[in-house]
Amino acid sequence: MTALAVIRDAGSRAGFTLAGERVVCDERGVLFFPDASLLAVSDLHLEKGSSFARRGALLPPYDTAATLVRLQAVIADYEPRRVVSLGDSFHDGGGAERLPEVFRLQVEAMAAGRDWFWVAGNHDPEAPAGLPGESVRALQVGALSFRHEPSAGALDGEVAGHLHPCARIVRRGRSVRRRCFASDGHRIVMPAFGSYTGSLNVLDRAYAALFRWERFFAYMLGRDRVFAIARPMLRPG
């Protein structure tokens, strides 16, 4: 039994309300808002492998393929009317132009028949060349605000990415570190979805001003479920 398995979990997928909107935290690292039929995903970092290769650092060139296969699966499961990619969808500004045709066709197929929004990120501030969808700096949907970098200070209804949150717990002498959704019920910071992305512990000072910590939970991604972990159980590292 893993350390996570002995923590009371929130079911296969954690659900709560954010600014009055129902939201589901999927164990694969996406958010689904059923009333808005909206799927949010963050920090795909597509074509990171080719970006590194251009600088002489060779990585296995499989990141885009793996990321898109996982994204296809969650879109097929939820069949959302809207998809929001919360910035850093590509690892650099030229990533969309380097995207091989087979992957371009995959994106086009996923976007067909639904509204698709590319939120500008710090890695990809411009619209992705030649791809369907609308490019925005931020997106407001009812009481929800979708943007790449979290705003300074606590903010109700914000859904952001950028920080690649993860959490660590120690239970019975065993340490477990996983990507997570970070939320106090007022705003949420999403985990990175990309296959080659790293993560930053939610106890890092970068998060300090973002949450009401007495209400904070790290929704840790397990192999097949989401675990809701309260702040007192979290450890740095």
> Helix count?
4
Percent helix: 10-25%
Total DSSP E strands = 16
Quick one: biggest sheet? 9 strands, mixed
* CATH topological fold name: Purple Acid Phosphatase, chain A, domain 2
Overall body shape: globular
Q: Write the H/E string, N to C.
A: EEEEHHEHHEEEEEEEEEEE
Count the domains: 1
Gyration radius from CA atoms, angstroms = 17 Å
Content-based structural category? alpha/beta
Intertermini distance: 22 Å
**Average pLDDT figure:** 90
- Report the top-level CATH class: Alpha Beta
Sequence stretches where pLDDT stays below 50 over 5 or more residues: 1-10
Query: Architecture, CATH level 2?
Result: 4-Layer Sandwich
Strand content: 25-35%
Task: Give a written overview of the molecule.
The chain has 237 residues and is an alpha/beta fold. It has helices at 48-54, 63-78, 95-98, 101-111; strands spanning 14-18, 21-25, 31-33, 38-41, 82-85, 115-119, 134-136, 139-141, 144-146, 158-160, 165-171, 174-183, 188-189, 200-201, 217-221, 226-230. Strand 11 and strand 12 form a beta hairpin.
In terms of topology, how is this protein built?
Layout: E1 14-18, E2 21-25, E3 31-33, E4 38-41, H1 48-54, H2 63-78, E5 82-85, H3 95-98, H4 101-111, E6 115-119, E7 134-136, E8 139-141, E9 144-146, E10 158-160, E11 165-171, E12 174-183, E13 188-189, E14 200-201, E15 217-221, E16 226-230
Parallel strand pairs: 4-5, 5-6, 6-7, 9-10, 10-13, 11-14
Antiparallel strand pairs: 1-2, 2-3, 3-4, 8-9, 11-12, 12-13, 12-15, 15-16
Helix pairs in contact: 2-4
